[in-house]
Amino acid sequence: MSGEADRPARPELAAAVRLSLRTLAQDAPGRSVEVRVPPFAAVQCVEGLRHTRGTPPNVVETDPRTWLELATGRLEWTDAVREGRVAASGTRADLSHWLPIVRL
């Protein structure tokens, strides 16, 4: 994707992020990892110890474009982490098992 013509409008971007995060939460139910894609959404997923207050021990955070590239298989998890496009902390914060959500 390069240029403004390739960028979705904000409402479509928000909808795609929210839908894909809900799908991740369904595919990997649980509350041990919080996945954040600001400013649009955050979900808790992956089985394990449940977090209840404060910052969870397992957090994944990225921007909307990177998240959608991961969710659609256009970007590999290891590449995104290595390139600093995803911040992943905690022993359960590796989402590679559940990605991509859908391949385009």
UniProtKB/TrEMBL annotation:
SUPFAM superfamilies, sorted: SCP-like
InterPro entries attached to this UniProt entry: SCP2_sterol-bd_dom_sf, SCP_3
Gene3D superfamilies per record: 3.30.1050.40
Superkingdom field: Bacteria
Pfam families: SCP_3
Location of the Bacterial SCP orthologue domain: 10-101
Name of the protein described by the UniProt record: Bacterial SCP orthologue domain-containing protein
Source species of the chain: Amycolatopsis methanolica 239
Phylogenetic placement of the source organism: Bacteria, Bacillati, Actinomycetota, Actinomycetes, Pseudonocardiales
